[in-house]
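[job 0412] stage=fold_complex status=start
inputs:
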Amino acid sequence: MTSWTEELSRARLHVVSGKGGTGKTTIAAALALALATGGRRVLLVEVEGRQGIAQLFDRAPLPYAEERIASAPGGGEVHALAVDAEAALLEYLAMFYNLGFAGRTLRKMGAVEFATTLAPGLRDVLLTGKVKECVNRTGKDGRHLYDAVVLDAPPTGRVVKFLDVTKAMADLAKVGPIKGQSEGVVRLLHSGDTAVHLVALLEEMPVRETLDAVAELDGADLRPGAVLVNRVHPARLPARSVPVAAEGRVDASRVRAGLAAAGLELDEFTLDGLVDETVEHAIRVQSQQEAMELLGESDLPTVELPELTDGVDVAALYELAEVLVAAGVR
Amino acid sequence: MTARLDFDPLLDDPATRVLVCCGSGGVGKTTTAAALALRAAERGRRVVVLTIDPARRLAQSLGLRELDNHPREVVVDGFEPKGELFAMMLDMRRTFDDMVLTHAGRDRADQILSNPFYQTISSSFSGTQEYMAMEKLGQLVAQDEWDLIIVDTPPSRSALDFLDAPQRLSTVLDGKFIRMLSAPARASGRGLLKIVGTGFSLFTRAVSTIVGGQLLQDASTFVQAFDSMFGGFRERAQRTYELLRSPGTGFVVVAAAEPDALREASYFVERLSAENMPLCGLVANRTHPVIATDLPGANALAAADDLDRSGEAPLAAAVLRLHADRVAVADRERRLLARFTRAHPGVALVGVPALPADVHDLDGLREIGRRLAGE
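[job 0412] stage=fold_complex status=done
writing structure:
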């Protein structure tokens, strides 16, 4: 299994997708911290109006503006932006049509939601358009303002549709300002500057969805990046004991003797409980291994991230970021 | 003191006609729905379970090989329930097509089905799956062939989507914009200007530049055709909504013992109570209760450290560490659930210990059913 590759280190836009419930937002945030480590400036973007970043970093909802939300080791900075399709559309319309206060009225009437519903592709064009603008933006010195942009993207079921702006454009007008913008987006998303990472869990559905997503990305000529395996349960048993224990065979007398050596005299009930726990652990480790092998079919760099028993708080994000850095993320 | 959610009396009660399993994505709604259905069938009911996007192995365990949008009896060797079990997978597109075909004449139906806007709405609008799940539920109820219907809900981010999406879809399609946009077919554009002012005309211009005039035209044709056929999306959504509030319907909220899932469950519980919808209770799914309850985690870790230092008994050391992991996880889960019950003391709850591996046969489902029933 390969870890982070040279090619991935050259990407400037890191799209993070995954099946719902796999911890996509958490991993996107940890990836942003990892990329910022060592003094870089990274922008973390969300596009689904969930305010997931704000919740994760335990702060008030983000406005439609880029704000610094965290520091990374070595002087790095993570900024965050919650892109809102409505705001993006109004911002956009204002550029080409002098809407003025009419924009506010339209918003109140629900016109914007109407337009984006009518043409679902429009929403995606607007959101990816904003992301592209962030990736390409340069400062006064002519250098990119952000060294990298991490996008907390829609889940695997929708991500290709989301990124495949070319297709969305087929539904939309073939002339006009939106067309010019979307051509730039298509160039960026299909270039080596972009990598689409997939967050997976070592369970049947998430693994299958990951493999399907890889095939779908390949088919759309988008570049799959790494598979980020989340919540890997630590394997405590010696590897050779796993298959036997998973079949329910745990040498209770050996466990008892070992416990006695450590000064623990346990009753039968507790000892049986420990044996049952060990069997369940072994089954889980084994099914994780099977899932891992299946994931290997994707032939992508893979990074494993541990299950955090204390839950995910800001400190945990740094812990996950360290694991990513150790795996070569930069 | 929070009551235990006791499933067997609920499943046995002939007055229980519809159970809706809801919760945020990835918490095990589909498996819970299937396990409850299996249990109810084995206890004597004639049950149908409507699943949405089941894992392949789960679908196979129910004998569902393809999405054919009709309930099929579950026939598996050695499976002889006292009642009967039917299962189906929702095909959203087909449900929509069928609805059009049933209600419109042949020519009219063809016209609608080939409308590009219909194709977009029926396959990719985010509320359509929820809308069609409701539609299918309505059909199953109307068929009156089963005495218990158990429904899984679409894998949305938010549990509330199931209640809100149909309404959102109908708002968009019934809304004033579509009427205004479809108005030019009947009235003059000048009249429009008077009604809504310059903001709207600018908007129409902007929208038709961006999304294209043809699309607007398709949308308005579709909505008019649909409207005359069904009396509008809104009324239809309203009817299924009423169904969910009728006696005999109950909601089972499924959540993992994780902060996000429990937060969603909280919203959903509050919403059900605000809407006077009957909540059966919360399933805290895939918990990891400690089995060797008499050994504290800290003691286990200390002993494991001792053993590691001496290098003897690696197996016992591993057992102690995995026990300590489990104690930590169980503690955290208990804390999170306690927080939920403090906020919602009236909600009955049952914890369902996780199976160590994915469910891939009826035995696995049966085991989950036992755990749901607290056996």
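[job 0412] summary: The beta strands of chain B are 18-22, 46-51, 72-73, 84-89, 148-152, 249-256, 279-287, 349-353.
[job 0412] exit 0
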